[in-house]
Write a structure and sequence with these properties.
mainly alpha, about 50% helix
Length: about 220
């Protein structure tokens, strides 16, 4: 967030410097707003230009692009504005150098003047602001990242299907009732024979006789 704010301020300062530069002297005593936009493509002439048809026009467009980039927090849009300012400034320098057979900066006030330096500084500040900005995607990724599902703790692992956690109601509730015995015949309540029954009433070997049936499972009468 801080980087976006700082980069936006730097970019806005650069755009303001670029827009204000045509009102300064560019070459000798001639203002930047006196150069027509078409002179940048056809060659520099001595014909004066209106303000909105001068080199100010591309700089105003670059300022508008800068505002869009700041609102959208797009570093690429801001960088495009900086390239527009630098591109038209360099193009003017090329055309002016062709018309004057070279460019120079003299101490007597001839040659390149402060307006050109201000336009170049504005383009550099726009590129610097784009580099400082963190961008919209990075800001959303670091500030709004959330896990799609909460991670279960070690004490409560995630299971499927979901199970009911043991609580007071589960611990104090009575267990399931025993099922009724469907058998109602003789010997229903007789306990199973254990080791003592086996020792008291041994079962005869089948080879010794055919005492089976009720004698095998029921003790003889005294």
């Amino acid at each position: 967030m801080f980087r976006n704010v700082l980069g936006s301020v730097v970019a806005l300062v650069g755009a303001a410097a670029a827009v204000q530069s045509p009102f300064q002297r560019w070459y000798q005593d001639r203002l930047g707003r006196d150069y027509r936009v078409q002179d940048l493509f056809d060659g520099i002439t001595g014909v004066s230009s209106s303000v909105m048809a001068s080199i100010l026009l591309p700089f105003l467009f670059a300022a508008l692009v800068t505002l869009v980039g700041v609102v959208l927090r797009s570093r690429w849009v801001v960088a495009l504005a900086g390239l527009i300012v630098l591109g038209f400034t360099v193009l003017w320098m090329v055309r002016q150098g062709q018309a004057a057979d070279g460019l120079s900066v003299d101490s007597d006030g001839s040659g390149l003047r402060w307006g050109v330096a201000q336009a170049l500084a504005g383009g550099v500040l726009l590129l610097l602001g784009a580099l400082v900005m963190s961008g919209r995607r990075r800001a959303e990724r670091t500030g709004r990242t959330a896990e799609p599902y909460p991670v279960p703790s070690a004490d409560h692992p995630d299971t499927w299907p979901p199970t009911q956690e043991p609580g007071p109601s589960a611990q104090t509730s009575p267990g399931p009732e025993p099922e009724a015995d469907p058998y109602t015949g003789p010997g229903r309540h007789r306990a199973p024979r254990g080791d003592e029954d086996t020792a008291q009433y041994p079962v005869q070997d089948p080879d010794e006789g055919e005492q089976h049936g009720s004698d095998r499972y029921r003790p003889p009468h005294p």
